[in-house]
Amino acid sequence: MKNFLAIFVGLHSSAKKQAWEAMDENVQNERKKAGMVAWGKWMQDHAEHIVDPGAPLGKTKRVDDNGI
Q1: What are the distances in angstroms from CA 18 to CA 6, 11, 15?
Q2: What is the pTM of this model?
Q3: How many CB atoms lie within 10 A of CB 16?
Q4: Nearest-angstrom CA–CA distance, 24 and 22
Q5: What stretches of 1-68 show up as alpha helix (H) in DSSP?
Q6: Tens place of pLDDT for every residue, the chain, 68 residues?
Q7: What's 10's DSSP letter?
Q8: Are 68 and 60 within 8 A, CB to CB?
């Protein structure tokens, strides 16, 4: 059986990062909470297909057409 690694990344652009940082801390916390609830539901919905739920990788680097 093949195993696959799924990597989920939060902020995709500097504009989105700036918009996030401009949000009220309470709004950020509510959105984080909603995201974790959605993630938990996704994990439950797909549990039969997940061999290893993994763990956070820590600080990462983005690779795209412009380099690293």
Answers
A1: 26, 10, 5
A2: 0.60
A3: 11
A4: 7
A5: 14-22, 25-45
A6: 777 777 776 666 788 888 888 999 999 999 999 989 998 999 999 999 888 888 777 777 777 788 87
A7: S
A8: no
